[in-house]
Amino acid sequence: MSIAHDIDGITARHPEIFARSLRKRLTGWLVGAGIVAYLVFAWWFFSIGAVLSGGNWGIAGSYLADWVSYEVRPDFDLKDNHLEISYPRFSPLGANPEPGWVSLKSQTVEIRSESKAVDTDGATSGAGFLGSLDDGGSQDDTDSFLGPVAGADSEAPPQTESETVASKREAVVEASVEVGAAGRVDILPDLVRVTRDGETIVLEIDRGTGVIAPADLPSWASQREPGAKVMAYFGFAGRAEIRDNKVKISRRFLGWENFFFDTRSPFWGRPGSEVASLLLFGPRLQPDISNAALAFDNFVNNSEWQHGDVWLKLLQTIVMAFAGTVLAVIVAFPLSFAAARNIYPSRIANFALKRLFDFLRCVDMLIWALFFTRAFGPGPLAGISAIFFTDTGTFGKLYSETLENIDDKQREGVRSVGASPVVVQRYGVLPQVLPVFLSQALYFWESNTRSATIIGAVGAGGIGLKLWEAMRTNSDWENVAYMVLLILMVVFVFDTISNMLRQRLMGRASGSAH
Amino acid sequence: MTTTTHRPVLSEAGQTVERHFRMLAGRKRLYTIGGILFMVLAMGGSLWFANESNAGKFFDRLPYLFDFVGQMVPRDGMEIWRAMFDLPSPYDDGSLKYNYPDGRIYFTQSLYMPEYFYKMLETINIALVATLIGFGLGFVLCFLAASNLMTRRWLRFFVRRFMEILRAFPEIVIAGFFLAIFSLGAVPAIIAVAVHTIGALGKMFFEVVENADLKAEEGLRAAGGNWVERVWFGVVPQVLPNFLSYGLLRLEINVRASTIIGAVGGGGIGETLRLSISQTHEAKTLAIILLLFCTIVAVDQFSAWLRRRLVGNQAFEFGRGA
Fold it and tell me: How far apart are CA A131 and CA A124, in angstroms?
C-alpha cells in the first residue's frame, strides 16, 4: 500500500520524532511508577487500609440520611395483655403525638398493677415517690423522672391509685405501624408480625425471656443468637428492633422537621396558610404581643434550629473576613510602596519589609488564629486579627511585586513637570495599579470568607465553631446541613459580587481568569 | 489638578466639552466619596459588632495579649532546639512541659526521628496525597467541563456545578463527617483536602484547556482520532506544564490547609501545635512554629523554582492565588 510506504518514508525522515531516545520514552512511565510507588507508601504510612476497614460505615449512612431527614421513635412496651406506647421526650411530633402511620386497636382489658415490676422499667412507683400529680397511668418509662409525663396518656384514661388489685380499663391491645410503602409491623402483646415487600415473619415473644424467630430470616432481618432481639430493616423508611419486652420503631421521614416553629410554639403544626392568616388577621395568641412579632420571635428562637444564633454566627464569619481583609489592605497599601525597589530607593527598608511580609504570610493563618484566640478569647476579634496578620503579608508581597512591574513612563511624565513625590505616586503610579490592587483585595475577601469558616473551628468563633459543635454531637447533622447551605449561599453570592466588581475593574478578560 | 492662573476664553463648543468634563469629574468624585463613606461605615459597624460579640472586649483583652506574648518566651534559647530535636532538658521535672525525649520515634536502637519532624512529615504527606488525588480527578473532570472539547452542554453544566460545590463546600464539614466515621486520624484530613482540591484544580484546569490552541486537536480529528485520543495527544501535551504549575501552587496551599485541618483532629503538626499552645508549653510551641515556618518557606521556594522552570514567569502574574 502506498500509505504504508509513505508512513515508512515519514518515519525514516523524522527519526527524532518516531524513534525517541530511551530516556524520553521512559520518562512518562518512570513518573507514573514513581507516583504509584508513593501512593503505596502513603497507603502504608497512614495505614489507610486498616482505617477504611475499621471505619464505622453503618453509621455513615444514617449520618448522611440525617442531613435531609428526621426520625420518629415510638416505643411499644409489651405488657401482659396490652401495649403501652411512648415517644421520646423531645419527639419532633410534639407532646401528644397521634401520627397517622400508627393505628391502634383498643379494648377493655383487666390490668394487674405491676408493683412486682415484672418489666425492666416498671415505673408505677416512680410517680409515687415523686409525689407528682400525674393525670394518667404512669407506667411510662424514664420520662416521669424528668417532669410531667408526655406520651401514652392520651390512650389511657386515669387510673386509680390502686397498688395491688387488678382494674379494668381501656387499653391498646394491638398496634400496627406502617414503615414506608411496603413495610409494616403488627404488634400484639405476645406476637410481632413484620412484613416487608409482601414477605412476613412472625416473631413470638416470650416476655422477659426471649424472642422466638423462625429459622430462616430474610436478608432484611437479623438475630444474633436464638432468643436475642431481632432487628428488621426497611431501608430508608426505618427499622424495627424487637426485644422480649418492647418494640422500638425508628421511622424516618424526608425533610427538616419543625424548621419554622418548634413544638412549644403556638404556631407549631399548623399549615402555612393558617399561619399566614393568623399573622395577618387572626386574634392575638398572646395578648401583649402581635402575632407577627410572636411568630418572628418563635422562629428566631426555634430551639432545634436556632436560626437567630446561626445567623449571628454567620454574620460574625462574614465580618471577620471583611474587616480582616480591609484592615490588611489599609496597612499593606502604604507599606508596599516602601517595599517596592523602584519606588522607595532604600535597599534596607525594601529588604526588611519584604522579609516582614514573608514572615507574616508564612506563619500560617492557623498559628495566628490559635495565638489570638488565646489572647482575645474565642470570637471574631481573634479571626479578624488572624486574617489581618496573614493577609497583610500576602497583600504586601503581591502589591510590592505589582508596583515593581509598573510602566515607568507615566511616572516620568508626571515627574518631568515638577510634581512633588506624593503627587508623582498619586498620578503616575496609582492609576496603573489601583485596579489590580482592588481586584486582588476582592479576590482575597472572597477566599477569606471560606478561610474564616475553618479558623472559626479552632476557636476563632463564627459559624465554624458552631458547625464544629454541631458535628461533635453526632446527632445534629440536619443543623450542619442547614449551616452548610447558608455558607454555600453566602460564598456563592460573594463570589458573584466579587467577580462582577473585578470584571468592571479589570475588563472581562482578566476578571474571569481566576 | 493644578489650576492655571490664565484662563483663555473658550468657544461655545469648547465650553460644552468643559461642562461635560466637569460633570464627569464631579460624578466620579461623588462615587469615590460615596464609596469611601460606605467603607468607613461598614468597617465601623463590623468592628463594633466584632467587639460586641467577642468573648472579651478588645481593650480589656489587650494586656492579656502582651502577657501571653511574655509567657511564650522560653527559659533559655537552647530550649527551643532541645524541644525541636527531642534532646533532654536540664529543667526536666517529669511534667509534660519538658519531656522532650518522650516523643522520639525510634527506627533502630539509637537512631530516632524527633517527634515534630515526624508530625511535620505526616502533614506534608497529607498535603501531597491530597494534591495527587485532587490532581488526578481534577485532570479527568476538566476536559468534560471545557467548552471547546465537550460539546454536550448538559454534561459541561453538570460537571462545572459539581466542581463548584466541591470547591465551596466547607472543608471542615467533610473533615468532621469523616472524623465521625473513622475517628481521629489523617484519613479524614486527606479526604477533606482532596475534595476541595478536586474542585479548585478542576476549575483552573478547564480554564487552561479553554485557552489552549486546538490546531493539534483538529489535526487528530481530521485523521479520525476519537475523543480520548484527541484530548490525550492533542491537548494534554500543551496544557500539562500549566497543570503542573497549578498543581504545585495547590500543594503550597494544601500544606497550610492540612495543618489547619490537623488542628481540628486530622493529626499531624497542627494538632500538636494546638495542644502545646493551649497548654502554654512555650519551648515546644516555638519549636513547632519555627519548624512550620521553615517548611512552608521551603515548600513555597521549591514550588516557585519548579514552576518557573515549567512555565516561566507567566506563573507569577496576578491570579496566582487560588
Answer: 11
**Residue A54 belongs to a domain:** no
Rounded to whole angstroms, the Cα distance separating A307 from A16 reads: 68
The residue among B149, B166, B127, B141 whose CA lies nearest residue B247 is: B127
Residues A276 and A298 in one domain: yes
Q: Which residue of A has its CA nearest to B169?
A: A488
Domain boundaries, position A278: 269-304
Residues A106-142 as b or e (16 or more Cβ within 10 Å = b): beebebebbeeeebeebbbebbeeeeeebebbbbbbe
- From chain B residues 23-62, the ones with a CB under 8 A of any chain A CB are 39, 42-43, 46-47, 49-51, 53-56, 58, 61
- Same domain, residue pair B255 and B139: yes
- Residue B322: pLDDT band (50, 70, 90) is very low
Distance between CA atoms of B262 and B281, rounded to whole angstroms? 19
Are B291 and B158 contained in the same domain? yes
Q: Note whether A286 and A348 are same-domain residues.
A: no
For cell 413495610, name the residue.
A183
Distance to chain A for B97, nearest Cα, Å: 18
Domain residues for the domain of B46 are 12-53
Rg for chain B, CA atoms, rounded: 28
Q: How far apart are CA A97 and CA A87, in angstroms?
A: 8
For chain A, what is the domain count?
4
Give me the residues paired with residue A201 across strands. Answer: A194
Q: Note whether residue B187 is domain-resident.
A: yes
Q: Which residues contact A174 (CB under 8 A, 6 or more apart)?
A: A83, A104, A105, A186, A187, A188
At CA B79, angle to CA B78 and CA B81, rounded to 5? Answer: 70
Whether the pLDDT of residue A111 is over 70: the answer is: yes
Q: What is the pTM of this model?
A: 0.80
Distance CA A452, CA A449 (A): 5
Whether the per-residue pLDDT at A134 is higher than 50: the answer is: no
Residue B182 with chain A: CB contacts under 8 Å: 51-52, 54-56
For residues A147 and A62, what is the distance between their CA atoms, to the nearest angstrom?
Answer: 30
Residue A379 region by backbone torsions, left for phi larger than 0, else alpha for psi between -120 and 50, else beta: left
Give me the residues of B, 167-196, that contact A with CB < 8 A.
168-173, 176-177, 179-182, 185-187, 190
pLDDT of A387-414, one tens digit each? 999 999 999 999 998 898 888 888 889 9
Note the pLDDT tens digit of each residue in B14-48: 899 999 999 999 998 999 999 999 999 999 999 99
A101 and A241 fall within a common domain:
yes
* Residue B186: CATH number of its domain: 1.10.3720.10
**A241 and A383 in one domain?**
no
The total domain count for chain B is 2
Q: Report the C-alpha gap between B320 and B322 in whole angstroms.
A: 6
If asked whether residues A196 and A165 sit together in one domain, one would say yes
* pLDDT at A378 > cutoff 80: yes
- Interface confidence, given as ipTM, is 0.84
Query: Are A142 and A191 contacting, i.e. CB atoms less than 8 angstroms apart?
Result: no
Query: Is pLDDT at B70 greater than 80 in this prediction?
Result: yes
Query: Closest Cα partner for B235 from B149, B152, B310, B308?
Result: B149
